[in-house]
Design the sequence.
């Protein structure tokens, strides 16, 4: 219970951090309030869907804001791709090159914030301290800068002390950003002595109906970096998922522990029934005692969980789940919620575990206390068998439907299978144990081996419970590991099958491939087609039962002649029609949303722009390229002219294609040409949450094994009376140990077979459906290691307790 409280508390602190914490403001720290576009798509029954790109603001609102009473100044901020060239001509690496350039702002950069004078004109700029230091320049020097993909020689007029990036005047910034009447945000300063909250309310009233958001205080940091702020939603998802699984495991493990406790106290509880206690009173007694034990362990676990929160957030930031600057949010809410969740899980599990003995007639309950129950009853067994069969049916779905729903259906069924195993295992063990003991007796096997098989069948509830918990550890770990690797393998399979390009051009260090660079590539000898390609996000909305819903989907933007560079396995329509305001959807998304070829549908781009593209094609290879494919014309029309990469298709018989393309882009800083079919950033791209998922899996495995060890210690220690009887009839301690080792071998062997079967059968069927290979997509070594660790845990917990028990008094 202590470990469960630690893990649940840490997860809840992470979830609260995602909900309440804000990134620190840097550039926007000088503004009293900030006006920006809405950075999320609202929903009615879930968290709002965050937008990773900055939502634009109409430029004409700057004058409306400046006219509000109490506003001292209002200044627009416009960003663009910008970096500097080192002495060797290579671009300097910056964290976010596409938004590293800014318009000079009187609000954000007062006189005391810089040395020199503000830039003015096309050949002047200002640099942050870190940028100036990186190239060894100062006020008055000339530097080579790459602005919006073009190299310029400019004069440094100022060095900014606290802000980050490259700065030019407002007119130059608007021209470089290629915006059509929009800016990124508006920074506002208020009159001295005027309360910021009052001015913010006035600005909100002045902008009523525009959909713009007025932000003050700590939340300004989220406005400054919307892509990093969007990671808070991922943090909530990861923490909520892990916390929910841990609570379920707590209930599962507590149920097993309480079952052992109830069995040990069977006579006491039966006597309570005999003297008039009602079934409800018996269950309440067991629940209160279990809750009292949990209540003593939870406070210490909560305290350690709080201490673990900061290093856990640092680890998540290291794996790019959240920004490293996000502070931990502290409050007593996680402690209270942890106590409520765990006490609720303990109480519920205790009542369920004591249900059987509390419902038995008093006379039978007293008579049955001399022996352990053999199985859990016919209804329990039949329910368990049904729960084992249903997931097997769900596992077949990926063979016929190649989509996320089929994958989730098959993977989710594993949880039902584990519940079914826990319910049906005692009956199965009883039947198999009886058969094994009869065969061993017929073959005159050694007594300890025969006793091990006989005990397994005679005490099937005990044996089946241990087997199911060990199988849970194996299944849970294998499912977590192989689900991620299978999705990655499906994406790589799609990408390898779709790739047709002969070379790829990228320009990541300068903000992407610009239209002018694309034009130069198309003029190179041997180039048949040059298809721009960008990764993005699209939000599709719907209304179900009057409730607004929104789903963020991974998407790819492709230019003209997309089918010559990529074979997306088109099922309907024609991908060559992808131009202008058109799009393609994967077949499953189109069919479930009722969108046909030629129909227009509503989509929200990554910056919040609402578009209504026409569907021109549906395709099957969505794991490799996302569920939506847009025309790059749509992104260009909404302020994103640069592409992540360009796929080059060679003319028939063309030779030295890469050399010709490199010659065409010679002199263009940061442009790289590689002889490959897809960008390196796309092929084999690591999921940023993969490391976190692995960590969570290992933590869950450790927690389950801790529960398994405690359960095995308890069940072994209570066999003192049984072993005393065996000693009394002449059985030596060594023979008892041999018997116990054989029992452990049977339990571990069964757990390995069943656990791997429940996990690997669905994963194999998923692999056949998604990748076309009849084996799970993952390394085999973890399978062997997990089985070895589970076996070692079971053996160690059982045999150590056995030796200690046999050394002590057997009376």
Sequence:
């Amino acid at each position: 219970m202590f470990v469960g409280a630690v893990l649940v508390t840490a997860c809840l602190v992470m979830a609260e951090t995602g909900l309440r914490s804000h990134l620190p403001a840097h550039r926007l720290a000088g503004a009293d309030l900030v006006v920006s576009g809405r950075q999320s798509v609202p929903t009615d029954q879930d968290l709002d869907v965050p937008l990773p790109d900055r939502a634009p603001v109409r430029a004409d609102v700057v004058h409306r804001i400046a006219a509000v009473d109490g506003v001292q100044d209002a200044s627009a901020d416009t960003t663009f791709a910008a970096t500097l060239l080192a002495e060797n001509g290579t671009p300097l690496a910056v964290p976010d090159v596409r938004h590293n350039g800014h318009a000079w702002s009187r609000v954000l950069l007062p006189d005391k914030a810089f040395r020199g004078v503000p830039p003015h004109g096309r050949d002047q700029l200002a640099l942050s301290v870190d940028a100036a230091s990186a190239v060894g320049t100062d006020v008055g020097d000339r530097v080579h800068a790459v602005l919006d993909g073009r190299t310029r020689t400019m004069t440094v007029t100022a060095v900014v002390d606290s802000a980050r990036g490259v700065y030019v005047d407002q007119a130059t910034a608007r021209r470089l950003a290629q915006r059509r009447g929009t800016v990124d945000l508006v920074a506002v300063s208020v009159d001295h002595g005027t309360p910021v909250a009052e001015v913010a309310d006035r600005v909100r009233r002045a902008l009523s109906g525009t959909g713009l958001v007025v932000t003050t205080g700590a939340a300004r940091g989220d406005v400054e970096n919307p892509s990093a702020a969007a990671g808070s939603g991922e943090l909530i998802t990861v923490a909520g998922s892990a916390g929910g699984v841990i609570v379920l495991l707590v209930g599962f493990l507590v149920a097993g522990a309480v079952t052992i406790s109830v069995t040990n106290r069977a006579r006491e509880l039966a006597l309570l029934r005999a003297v008039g206690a009602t079934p409800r009173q018996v269950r309440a007694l067991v629940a209160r005692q279990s809750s009292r034990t949990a209540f003593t362990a939870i406070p210490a676990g909560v305290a350690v969980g709080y201490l673990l929160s900061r290093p856990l957030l640092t680890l998540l930031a290291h794996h790019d789940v959240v920004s490293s600057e996000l502070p931990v949010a502290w409050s007593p809410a996680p402690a209270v919620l942890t106590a409520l969740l765990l006490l609720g899980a303990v109480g519920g599990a205790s009542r369920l575990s004591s249900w059987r003995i509390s419902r038995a007639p008093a006379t039978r309950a007293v008579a049955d206390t001399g022996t352990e129950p053999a199985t859990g009853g016919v209804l329990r067994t039949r329910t368990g068998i049904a729960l084992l069969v249903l997931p097997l049916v769900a596992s077949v779905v990926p063979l016929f439907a190649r989509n996320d729903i089929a994958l989730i259906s098959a993977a989710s069924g594993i949880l039902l299978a584990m519940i079914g195993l826990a319910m049906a295992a005692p009956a199965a063990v009883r039947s198999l144990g009886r058969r094994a003991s009869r065969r061993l007796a017929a073959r005159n096997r050694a007594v300890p081996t025969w006793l091990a098989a006989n005990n397994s069948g005679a005490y099937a509830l005990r044996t089946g419970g241990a087997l199911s918990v060990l199988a849970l550890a194996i299944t849970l770990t294998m499912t977590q590991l192989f689900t991620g690797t299978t999705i990655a393998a499906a994406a790589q399979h799609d990408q390898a099958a779709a790739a047709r390009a002969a070379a790829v051009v990228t320009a990541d260090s300068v903000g992407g491939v610009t239209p002018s660079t694309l034009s130069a590539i198309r003029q190179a000898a041997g180039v048949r087609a040059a298809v721009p390609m960008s990764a993005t996000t699209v939000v599709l909305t719907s209304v179900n039962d009057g409730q607004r819903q929104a789903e963020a989907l991974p998407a790819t933007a492709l230019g003209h002649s997309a089918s010559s560079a990529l074979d997306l396995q088109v099922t309907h329509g024609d991908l060559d029609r992808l131009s202008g305001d058109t799009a393609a959807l994967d077949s499953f998304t189109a069919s479930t949303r009722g969108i046909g070829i030629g129909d227009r549908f509503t989509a929200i781009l990554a910056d919040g722009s609402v578009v209504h593209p026409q569907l021109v094609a549906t395709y099957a290879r969505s794991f490799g390229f996302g569920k939506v494919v847009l025309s790059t014309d749509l992104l260009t029309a909404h302020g994103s002219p640069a592409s992540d990469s360009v796929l080059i298709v060679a003319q028939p018989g063309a030779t030295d294609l890469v050399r010709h393309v490199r010659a065409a882009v010679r002199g263009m800083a940061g442009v790289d040409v590689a002889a490959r079919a897809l960008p390196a950033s796309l092929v084999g791209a690591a999921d940023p949450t993969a490391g976190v998922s692995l960590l969570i899996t290992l933590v869950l495995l450790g927690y389950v094994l801790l529960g398994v060890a405690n359960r095995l210690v308890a069940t072994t220690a209570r066999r003192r009376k049984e072993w005393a009887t065996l000693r009394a009839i002449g059985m030596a301690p060594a023979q008892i140990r041999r018997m116990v080792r054989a029992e452990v071998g049977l339990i571990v062997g069964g757990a390995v077979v069943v656990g791997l079967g429940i996990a690997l059968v669905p994963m194999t069927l998923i692999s056949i459906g998604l990748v076309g290979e009849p084996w799970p997509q993952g390394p085999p070594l973890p399978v062997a290691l997990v089985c070895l660790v589970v076996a070692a845990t079971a053996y160690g917990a059982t045999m150590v307790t056995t030796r200690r028990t046999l050394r002590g008094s057997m009376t």
Remarks:
- The chain is about 50% helix and 15% strand.
